[in-house]
Amino acid sequence: MHNLAITLKNKGFEVTGSDDEIYEPAASRLAKHGLLPKHTGWFPETITPDTGRIILGMHAKADNPELLKAQQLGITINSFPEFLYEQTRDKKRIVVGGSHGKTTTTAMIMHVLKYNGIKFDYMVGSAIEGYDTMVSLSSDSEIAVFEGDEYLSSAIDRRPKFHLYHPDIAIINGIAWDHMNVFPTWEGYVDQFRIFADMITHGGTLAYYAGDDNAAAVAEAARPDIIRKSYKVHAYMQNRAGTFAVAVNRTVPAPFFGDHNFQNLSAAFKACQAAGLTGDQFYDAIPSFPGTARRLQKLRDDEHVVVFQDFAHAPSKVKATIDAVAGAYSKRKIIAVLELHTFSSLNSDFIGHYAGTMDSATKAFVYYNPHALKMKRLPDLSREDVAAAFRHSNLFVTDNSEELFRAVADSSEPESTVLLMSSGDFDGADLKQIAETL
To answer: Which one of 18, 21, 88, 336 has the lowest number of neighbouring Cβ atoms within 10 Å?
Structure first.
C-alpha cells in the first residue's frame, strides 16, 4: 500500500493516507516522499465529499470509522488489486500465481523486460535491486506484470486478489495449501486457482507447472479457448565454475540455484515467450538477474560460514529452500532455522504438514513467539507438539528468540551453511549482525 501511495504521488496525484501501525521501512519511505501521516490512527473527519477515491487495504476492518464515513458519503472505494486492474485494463497483463515462487518468477519477468528496453507496469511482493518501489503504474507502457497473491482483497471484498486481475497471460507455479485462516479446507483452496484460470481473458495463455498434479488438473479443466503451456524444471548443471541453465543451443550462467528456482525460470520463460519475446531476448538477460530481497538472500559468505535469509514459511516452501541449499552445499553442515509466524504455521490442525520438510538439514531449529499466537487468537503450542510435528532427528524447538540464536551460534562451526527462514522478523533481530557473529 505504501508503495502504491508513492507511485501515485510521483504520477502527480494528491495522496493522503492513514493507519494505526506504520513500521519500517514503510515509515521512512513515506516520510521521504512527504506522505507519512502526522498521527497514527483513524480520523473520519479527513474523509470529505472532495475525496476522489479510497483505496482500501487488508488491514482496515469492516467497521473502520474512515471506511464507514466513505461509504456514507458514497465515495468510490477500491481494493488494492481492483485499482491495479482498473489502471491497466487496456494493457497486456501477465499475472504470476501459485503457492510458491511468485515473487521470484515475477522479478525474473520484470528483469527480462527491463533488460530488453520494454516499458511495463508492475506489482511485486518484495524489494528488487534497481527499482525504487514495488509498484509502478505508467501511461505509456503496454504490458503489466503482477504477482498474483491468493489472499483476500479487503474487508469488504472477500475475493482473492488474483481473481481481480483478469490476466492475458497467467502462471500457476504449483498449488500447496496455504492461508488456512481464510481457506479452511484443501478443496476450497484449490477452487481459488480454478477461478483464477477462469478469469483469463478470451484466447489468453495459461502456463502451468506439469510436475504439480493439482496445477495440471486446473489447467486441463480450463476453458477450451485458453492456450495451455506446460513446463518442467529447467535443465541446469552445477560445477566449480557455478550454476548454469542449459537450453537447446546454449548454456547460460545462472545467479541462483536449486530446483525451485529453475522451475521459476521455466515459468518466466513461458510467460515472456507468450508476450512475444524470443529465446535470445530471454536468455541474454538471465546472467544479470539480481534476485529479490529475502529470497535466498546471502548475508555472509567467507571461508568460515555462509548465511542465507529466506522468506520461506509454508511447508512446500521450507522443504524446497532447504533442499536447494543442501544440494548446492552438499559438503557442508546445513543449519536450518525456521520461525513459525503465519496463522497456518501456528495452527495445531495444520502444523503436521511440516513433517519431513527439514530433513535435508543437519541440524534444525524451529522458533515461535507466544505473542504471535495471542495476536492470531490461537491456542498455545508446546515445544513438544512442534517437535512431534516436524519429526526431525536433530531438532531444537524454542519460544525464546535469544535462546534460539544462542543455540544456533553454538551449533555453527567452520564449513557451515546457515539458512534463516521466516515471513516475520525473528522479533526484530538484526540478522546481518547475527550472521557476522556466527
So the answer is: 21
